[in-house]
Amino acid sequence: MRVLAAMSGGVDSAVAAARSVEAGHDVVGVHLALSETPAALRAGSRGCCSREDAADARRAADVLDIPFYVWDFAARFTADVVDDFVSAYAEGRTPNPCLRCNEKIKFAALLDRALALGFDAVCTGHYARLTSGELRRAIDADKDQSYVLSVLTQEQLQHAMFPIGDTPKPAVRAEAAERGLRVADKPDSHDICFIPSGDTRAFLGERLGARPGAIVDDATGMELARHDGVHGFTVGQRKGLGVAAPAADGRPRYVLGIEPVSGTVRVGPADALDVRSIEAERPVWSAGRPPADRFACVAQVRAHGGLAAAVVESGPDGLRVELDEPLRGVAPGQAVALYRPDDEGDVVLGSATITQTI
User: What domain of life (predicted)?
Assistant: First the structure.
């Protein structure tokens, strides 16, 4: 097969490309230039968009003796991922930019171009597995990325390859060292790639400006403090609330809800975060369709953790997910990924975007 290997400059994508070459595929490496100002990102950035990363990807391609190109997707990334991220926070939602990047960039824009150029598949260093067309969790549970890939359609999965999903991360690093890849010991990327400082509130503040509002007690409606914008908060947040007076029961307060129109942030006790029912829109089914109009599954609301057995009702307007036990920190804008409830519980059925919780 002709395979386009997406090479971020990290160890995972380098080993994935190497395995594709070893499997006998005709492999071409490509690094996606996603930042409009890559020179502004510091060396050793926790993201994956710096010039340093592009150079690391090129060196890995040289070791593997494969053609290598840099494709400029910065404008598309800004429009589909960064701008979407900013607008979601302005509307009181909590987006997942990695999930959106997979959906809009790596398996839409990149895959479309790859197919147009005659490639059969796109290979990435994601920790996930494909078995008989089914998307499954990775062997390494701590690194599993099936959640952020749950937005992929059946057609996209047919042209995807995840060569390292069957290998624990330490073994991937050891293999990279054996292959002479200099990125073997390169630290993993963390946080949000387009916010290398890690200060999401400052990043959003620069783009949205001050939008003052009130932090109120959910039970009494009493104003507890003022804030500069709802973009500085997310459901389940405990730190950085700026509330000086202790709660009546002396326990910590958490963000329970965000009302962007009025600028109100509601806070209250931890047990008020319990969610038993989720409504979601824009479902994507990994098999092309839901298993049934009503079916049992395991629901996951975060990239790592946040799992519960559930029953899903699928309708023309979206999904309703009834959880067998409550989950906390579930926010509109996040994705709910649905897994088959068998013994292993590792097959992705689909996902949808959360709109409301009860």
Answer: Bacteria
